[in-house]
Amino acid sequence: MKKIVVLHSDVAPDAPADELDCLRQAQAVSDALTALGHEPVLMPFVLDLAENMDKLRQISPYAVFNLVETVAGKGSLVYLAPALLDLLNLPYTGCRTDAMYLTSNKPLAKKMLRDAGIATPAWLCENGHLCGEAPADTFIVKACWEEASAGLDETCVVKSPRPGDLARIIQTKKNETGVPWFAEEYIEGREFNIGLLAGQDGIIALPAAEIIFLDYPEKKLKILDYRSKWIEDSFEYEHTSRTFDFDRHDAPLIDRLREIALACRRLFDLRGAARVDFRINENGEPLVLEVNANPCLSPDAGFAAALKRAKIPYHRAIDAMIHDALK
After folding, report:
1. Are 271 and 195 in the same domain?
2. 40 and 81: one domain?
3. Which of 34, 192, 297, 319 is the most buried (most CB within 10 A)?
4. Is the pTM for the entire model greater than 0.85?
5. Rounded CA gap, 4 and 58, in Å?
């Protein structure tokens, strides 16, 4: 029986739902590791790096399953976990330090996508510089580093902005939260995601999922905001679902999404498990919204649903990630 540390965010008992979910992931992964004959050791990753190093040396694990999503509540520090594991020369699941940093910094990731010829919606950064095509009618203001749609709600929607509006709103959001923000063009169209999983012969693309916005009022933007993911009694949560069933006419589009997801894998050197989110514009062109190098692995989340659709048992996916870590 081999010890495997399940490294997770240091979450307070009164933390919001998106942060508490990291603990649910840690328990699910621990259960899977136990079923595989391993000895899981749950360990929170704290801001005191020396403390983390001492604990890991004492445990001396066979491998580390990295589930860290935030450090001291900050998504901008997520790369510290793999960086420390690199320093200790411990094998760990998931993306390496550089991939975690690059994809977590959303404006930087978008620049890399654009430079690589992978389409992504236009965006405006903190410095007021617009990257991409001419300004759109509607923008979504987002945190540069935070995941799980943290801070994203209807107040982040800016319609028909006047010159300087977006820059002022971005600065206001930064002042309020203490973290940088940017504005991204809103794409009115279908939304998809493709999960990526390490396999024996490299990364494989899981079945494509489409996000369905059910009975949304005409003037309500169809976005996966915080409420749709985490507030269970909200309209957004109850009227957002996913499907893996598509018409045969969608086959070329699904193939294209898979090709782009694998291109993102090569660009960022994604490992273990990852997810690529898309919107389809009015011309039928897929645009990459985000490359998530640390997708949610909760049994009721989208990645697990894609595994089920692919007929891959959850514990087998966890096993595949361990084997990938040991390569």
Report:
1. yes
2. yes
3. 297
4. yes
5. 13
Residue 88 lies in a domain: yes
Sign of CA dihedral 313, 252, 225, 100: positive
Residues 192, 129, single domain; the answer is no
Domain presence at residue 21: yes
* Parent domain of 46: 3-92
Say yes or no: 259 and 306 in one domain: yes
Query: First-to-last CA distance in the chain?
Result: 19
In a domain, 98, yes or no: no
> Among 102, 194, 115, which Cα is nearest to 144's?
102
Distance of alpha carbon 29 from alpha carbon 57, whole angstroms = 22
Residue 129 vs residues 107, 125, 133, 184: alpha-carbon distances, Å? 11, 6, 12, 12
Q: Residues 306, 152, 225, CA angle at the centre, nearest 5°?
A: 35
- Are 198 and 274 found together in one domain? yes
Whether 134 and 13 map to the same domain: the answer is no
Structure tokens at 201: 């012969």
The answer on 55 and 17 residing in a single domain is yes
Rounded distance between C-alpha atoms, residue 236 and residue 182, angstroms = 23
- The DSSP bridge partners found for residue 130 are 124
* pLDDT digits (tens), the chain, 327 positions: 899 999 999 988 777 777 888 999 999 999 999 999 999 999 999 999 999 999 999 999 999 999 999 998 888 899 999 999 999 999 999 999 999 999 999 999 999 999 999 999 999 876 667 777 766 788 888 888 876 455 576 777 888 777 688 888 888 888 888 888 899 999 989 999 999 999 877 889 999 999 998 888 887 888 877 777 777 878 888 888 999 999 999 999 999 999 999 999 999 999 999 999 999 999 999 999 999 999 999 998 999 999 999 999 999 999 999 999 998
The answer as to whether 102 is a domain residue is: no
